Amino acid sequence: MTTEKKKMSRLTKALLETAEDLHAGGLLKENTYKKITKRHLGEEEKPDLAPLSGEDIRTIREQAHMSQSVFADYLNVTVGYVSKLERGAKRPSGAALVLLNVIRRKGIEAIL
Amino acid sequence: MTTEKKKMSRLTKALLETAEDLHAGGLLKENTYKKITKRHLGEEEKPDLAPLSGEDIRTIREQAHMSQSVFADYLNVTVGYVSKLERGAKRPSGAALVLLNVIRRKGIEAIL
DNA sequence: ACATACTATAGTACATTGGACCATAGTAAT
DNA sequence: ATTACTATGGTCCAATGTACTATAGTATGT
Q1: What CATH number has the domain spanning A54-111?
Q2: What is the pTM of this model?
Q3: Is residue B78's beta carbon less than 7 angstroms from any atom in nucleic acid strand C?
Q4: Which of A28, A64, A79, B86 has its CA 20 to 30 A from that of B30?
Q5: SS3 for chain A, per residue?
């Protein structure tokens, strides 16, 4: 484990602050936070995702102490696909990349 | 919020118990849990994922108080795709479905 | 009021992901 | 030993998800 310096991006922080600001004061009802849009967040960069090599992915799975098959079930993908990911034969896209990043940062319990 | 009856599937519980069992006793070093495989978990069903209709997905996004665009950024997908999901023109697959389920169960902070 | 910038929808065409399916070799359990 | 699992390797191909464009509606700022 590296020092893991609380990698909450400016965007994330801005998001949470925006949510709190909108909620603060009695102007908004508990249940009707205003919607957070691009305007609120300004020109911040998108949430930063590590690209994740095959090795990275294997490491993530091993940290979860799972076989490819069990890991695949939790990701809702096939064993063959996990195998391909770890060998670099395929690259995770969109939501899969987010999910893997979450597991790396917060552990497998984050998705249980 | 519905009563949310601690929906930890048998599989999840088995997983965590297995991990603890393997760790218990001085037989295994702190860092060398044995790998959890299908054998350990027996013939349990896979983690149960709700199928998520377009309406569901819209609700999830609205609970996060985000515009489609901001939500899309966090899912690492395009705005157009989120729009299609909510309209039912496309259905989320594999990891995307897991991610949406996680957000629904644990809130958007679960992936920040 | 006007101009500007964002949200949301909608559609098409297309690239790629990720699954289905097969087979093989190695390892662990009985 | 035999059985069952893990992991790899490959091909084929449907479906996902992207890129692009356009429209209408809404919010912001001047």
Answers
A1: 1.10.260
A2: 0.85
A3: no
A4: A79
A5: CCCCCCCCCHHHHHHHHHHHHHHCCCCCCCCCCCCECHHHHCCCCCCCCCCCCHHHHHHHHHHCCECHHHHHHHHCCCHHHHHHHHHCCCCCCHHHHHHHHHHHHHCHHHHC
